[in-house]
Amino acid sequence: MSDRRLVFSLLLNFLLTCVEVVAGLFAGSLALLADALHNFSDCGTFVIALVARRVGRLPSDHRRTFGYRRAEIIGALINLTILTVTSLYLIYEAISRLFTQHPIDGRVVIYAAAVAFVVNVATAALLHAISRRNMNVRAAYLHNLGDSLSSLGVIVAGAAIVWFGIMWIDSVVTLVVSAYILRQGFPDMKRSIHILMEGAPADVDTQALVAELQAVDGVVEIHHVHLWELGEDDRALEAHVVVQAVDHEQWAAIKRELKSRLESQFHIHHSTLELEGAEEAACSECASGAHHHC
């Protein structure tokens, strides 16, 4: 059912984008074209969400041992890059038009933007129920709420053109909408690059994590710590743990406690911990040239 809602929302936004592009070209309104761009970005959001839901269900294999969860991140980065370049071009055109007046049909702008406003509100209402339990869909839902505000701005621009003949308001609204798109997209682009670079989760202090693990009874030291994100909601960690205990049952108890703290305090559900005895770790340092004797 949730996939059907996403497909229906995608079709609505794609049709709306086509209507706004045609109306924007006919009316000569950059603001309408900027709003069409914003709605087209929603189509990309819905496609990414749909593909992610389908691809994410595929099991891991010998070539993709972590599965296919990062397909969504790659698609998002491509979509955001195209969106950014197009927004910068619209800003350039809007600034140019501030010094050169172009005729604009304000009534067409108002009608098209009003249709966009209705579609955006309807789409947001359609996604509201499933947005509560899915981050991808919630992002699309919030994006549509923002689009509703953008469409209202274009309606105001059209009204100012019809009633007061203020043509430059179209360029101003274009600048505002384009700047809004860039502001919304930059954090997502930054996050996508961070995940693809296998960076640590933004809300996890690695030093605090190590200190918390080293506070477990029997743990002497934590080293070779690697923490990264597989996707938006998937985190992984691997580390070497030096322990004082010599009994294997104690080792198992220490590992359980470490994994429990990782899950409860840092939401890390995939962890690989290599336990080493204190003497074994000392010999490893010796072999690497840190000491002359084991």
What does this 3D model show about the protein?
- By secondary structure, the chain is mainly alpha-helical.
- The chain folds into two domains: 2-196, Cation efflux protein transmembrane domain (Alpha-lytic protease prodomain-like); 206-287, Cation efflux protein, cytoplasmic domain (Alpha-Beta Plaits, 2-Layer Sandwich), CATH 3.30.70.1350.
- The chain has nine helices and three strands, in the order αααααααββαβα.
- β1 (219-229) and β2 (235-243) form a beta hairpin.
- The model is unreliable at 290-294 (pLDDT under 50).
SSE topology:
Blueprint: H1 2-27, H2 30-55, H3 71-98, H4 106-131, H5 135-164, H6 168-196, H7 206-214, E1 219-229, E2 235-243, H8 248-266, E3 270-277, H9 278-287
Parallel strand pairs: 2-3
Antiparallel strand pairs: 1-2
Helix pairs in contact: 1-2, 1-4, 2-3, 2-4, 2-5, 2-6, 3-6, 4-5, 5-6
What CATH first level of the largest domain would be assigned? Mainly Alpha
Sheet/helix structural class: mainly alpha
Low-confidence segments, ≥5 residues, pLDDT <50?
290-294
**Beta-strand content estimate:** 5-15%
What's the CATH architecture name of the largest domain?
Answer: Up-down Bundle
How would you name the CATH homologous superfamily of the largest domain?
Cation efflux protein transmembrane domain
Record the strand order, biggest sheet. Answer: 1-2-3
DSSP strand count: 3
> What is the 3D form?
elongated
How many helical elements? 9
Order of helices and strands: HHHHHHHEEHEH
CATH topology of the largest domain: Alpha-lytic protease prodomain-like
- Domain count, please report it: 2
Nearest-angstrom radius of gyration? 26 Å
Q: What is the distance, rounded to the nearest whole angstrom, between the alpha carbons of the first and last residues?
A: 64 Å
Instruction: Let me know the average pLDDT.
Output: 79
